[in-house]
Known about the structure:
Elements: E1 3-7, H1 11-23, E2 27-31, H2 34-43, E3 48-52, H3 60-70, E4 75-80, H4 84-93, E5 97-101, H5 105-120, E6 125-128, E7 131-134, E8 140-142, E9 145-147, H6 151-161, E10 167-168, H7 170-181, H8 187-201, E11 211-214, E12 218-221
Parallel strand pairs: 1-2, 1-3, 3-4, 4-5
Antiparallel strand pairs: 6-7, 7-8, 8-9, 10-12, 11-12
Helix pairs in contact: 2-3, 6-7, 6-8
Amino acid sequence: MKKILLVEDDIDIVKHLISFLENEGFFVYHTDGQTKAMDMIENQYFDLILLDLSLKEGHGFSLYHQIKSYQDIPIIFLTASNDEYSVVTGLNLGADDYISKPFRPRELLSRISNVLKRYQRQNIVFKYQDIKLNTLTGQVLKNNQEIILSALEYKLLLIFISHPHQLLSRDFLLDEIWNITGEDVTDNTLSVYMKRLRQKIEDDPKNPCYIKTLRGLGYKLGD
């Protein structure tokens, strides 16, 4: 199921949108300000952002720049119906689409579907500190130098980099590998590939600074 982050401070709009979109099969997360939104984006992966320009804290255009400098996530602006300047500015910035309030939920759903379809045909670049992963080319860079990973090492890194700062249990990793590859990886095999991945991306694999072990709990990318 696709995950949407709704950045909006009008509680009535929030309630109606969450109810409608969840009934349509989306997971919807909500926040009302710029700082909180970036905290959420840096700690979990979203498929799309619905971004109001007028926020409780910060501004939609400023948050747009922050998001796009961190990760290329599709963004649809929510604008006031008579605010032509904001619509033009948002599109010039590179926004994927916009919709004016008040809007019809079915129209918004159509715009969301169209934007997601466009992004499915494009590459997604994940970034974490000095590591970049391009899902279209399968290329992994560290400090702009390519790192050659095996297929399973790449898939492991993709799981971590799309769930930054989250504690991931070994069972979760095994399930995700199965979902991605259809391969039934054993616990011992996971340990082997975790070691190999660290040898390739860490400066000091014995003291990892990217993927850290939380004994008895699992692993986490970052603090």
